[in-house]
Every structure is written in structure tokens, then in C-alpha cells.
Amino acid sequence: MNRLFVTANHYYSVLERFGLQYILKSPWPWLWIVLLLVFIAQGFAFVTSGTKLNGTALFLDWQFLSLIVLEFAILAVSNKLQSDKAKVVLERVNSKYRQSFSSIEQARRFLLQRFFGRHEAEYLAFADDIQKAITYQDQLRNPLAFGFSRILLFLYDPDSKQRIYALLVVVVSVLTALSIREGGSISGVFEFFAGEKLALVVFVWLLLVVFLAGLLTLLLVIRLGVEVLWAYLSVRLDGKAARNPYTLKYLQRDLLAFHRFVHLRGAQEG
Predict the structure, then answer these.
(1) pTM, two decimal places
(2) Does residue 237 belong to any structural domain of this protein?
(3) For 9-68, how does the pLDDT look when each residue is reduced to its tens digit (9 = 90+)?
(4) 3-state secondary structure (DSSP) of residue 129
(5) Residue 244 burial (C-beta neighbours within 10 Å; 0-12, 13-18, 19+)
(6) 103 domain residue, yes or no
């Protein structure tokens, strides 16, 4: 089992780390951090500004409009970082293993074969064996065993996302209920655009939809980034045999993606 973790961690780190040289020399990671901090500060300022939210005010409010611009700026930089990471990984694999891959998929396929020595038709069974090993490990884990990856799981466990989301929904619901002042009612929602022209109402609703879509996408990007950083820190600080289940799930996803089903006949005409 230790050998599986070592190999899975190595596979993960080769494909997911940017490298210190890129982080120090490229302006994009630093720009991403700056934009995110500005977005958080601007969002806090907007929420605490006490601006009366009607259609015209929201349409003309520079803080709200800047939040939308910042959202898509962060997502654009995130896309740039993802593209740069693929280039860094290709350069790393091509240089280390003397290959000439032109896509990250080719590199993944090569590394799976090199690290695990399985045929593509065996990947699904291998992924299933890994899942069984994870289950047994959870059932037989020594409660006294301790390590950096265990400490991280006390703070955040990727397998508990559904419970975390449910808790957030409860918290938001409670805060919303507490924020309704005496005498308020659901009709206050419809007073949001009271007295506004239809075209302005439609446009402001469109702005709200765009803002919420951008916000949800941004939260997803941040969550994925946290999971990637989480696994990388556990590998770096807890040793190559760090028992982080995320790296095994990462490996399982690739095994499933590149599994080749044999004895499949093509579609028959007529």
C-alpha cells in the first residue's frame, strides 16, 4: 500500500505542480492573487455600503459593476494559469523522459504506462482495486496514527463536501431569516424593481444572472485550487508516502479516462 501511495503521489506531483521557477518568474500567479484580494475587498465594501438596491441604483453602482469585471478577470487569469500549467508539464515530461509529446493527454497516457506498467484494458480493474484498498484502509486505520495529511483532514476533507454544502445552506437560511426586519414580507422582493422601465428591469436581471454565474464558477475554481494545493502540501510536508486519498482519486480518474474496452464491435449499418 505504501508503494501505491508513493507512485500515486509522484504521478500527481509531476502533472499538477507548476514549479517554483514558474511561480517566481511569471506574473500570472501574482496577478491572480491580487485580483482575488481586490474582489474580496470590493465585495465586502459593496455589502457594507448600505446602498439602496433598486434597479437604477444597481445598474449605476460602480462597486457592483466592478465585481462583475473582477470575476471574469479572475476566471480569465485562471484559464491562463491552466494553459501555462499544461505547457510546464509537457516541458517537464518531455525533458525528463526524452519524449516529444504535443498534448497533456499523451503525457498522462505515457506516465500511467511507465509508473504502473498496466495495459489500458486493465485500467478499470486497477481503479477498482484501488477503491477496495481505500475502503479497507479507512476501516482498519490505526486511530493513533498521526501525520500532516491527517491534520489537514481535520480542517477540510474533500469527501465531506456534501455535508459542508448542506451546512452552508442552513447558515445562509438562518442569516436570511434574521435579516428580515419587523414588518417585512415576501412582497419586498417584488419591490426591488418598483417603478423601473421594463428594459432596465430585464437588463439588471441579466446583470444579476451574469454576476451569480461568475461567482459560482469562481467558487468552483477556488475549491478545485484548494484541493490541488491541499494534496500537494500533504505530499511535500508528509513525505512521498503521504496517505492523502485525493491523489489516489486523481489517479483513478485518469485510469477511467484512459481505460480501453476491448471486444467492442462498431455500429452496424441497417
Answers:
(1) 0.66
(2) yes
(3) 888 888 888 877 788 888 999 999 999 999 988 888 877 766 555 545 555 567 778 888
(4) helix
(5) buried
(6) yes
